[in-house]
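Q: I have 211 residues here and want to know how they pack in 3D. Can you give me a structure?
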Amino acid sequence: MKCLGLSSAPTRARGPAAAAATAADVVLATAAALAAVALATTGCHKAPPPYVGTDAGPATPVWQAVCTGLDDFVLSVWAFRPDDVFFVGGNGAAGRALLLHYDGANWVRTTGVSTQVLWWVWGSSAYDVWAVGENGEALHYDGGWWTPVPTYTTATLYGVWGSAADAVWAVGGSIDPVGPKDVFRFWNGSIWTAIAPATPSGESIFKVWGA
């Protein structure tokens, strides 16, 4: 892959601490399937052109490719601000995760942290970002490094969201009829813990959100 402004970041793994978990009110969404978003053309631009208005009003918003030439699927995007953007995804056939970060000028791709496809990304701040995906994968970003954190499940985690750095939910399951369903994990700032739903749906949980 050749992308303008793209570089690779070093990797380092660190282990989590242990503690107990609490609960929070959440809104859940289930679906039979979730579509993947892919960008695949020719290069990663260092920065999009400026958004310029006129005396008559702001410029008309225009969609444009900001990172192209990817040989992986982009499945989720999260941004703390315009110069702090995360793309995650991957390529299951190649056994490769996609972790891209945009700092307002350049894209940095982190490699060597995971071989799992990552389905969703969310953060409470620029120094507290979670990416979750297949085989129970959960990666935490502290502003400098992505670190694998055990979730104690082999189910695919399709969604992640939190109300605070120490109150994060991850949900998932399996598309296999005999695979795990109703997978809920809660992060209390130290450890991911399984939380059983009061009324199991018997379905995979694809997204989570709360207020």
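Q: Anything worth noting?
A: Residues 139 and 148 are 4 Å apart (CA to CA). Confidence is low (pLDDT under 50) at residues 11-43.
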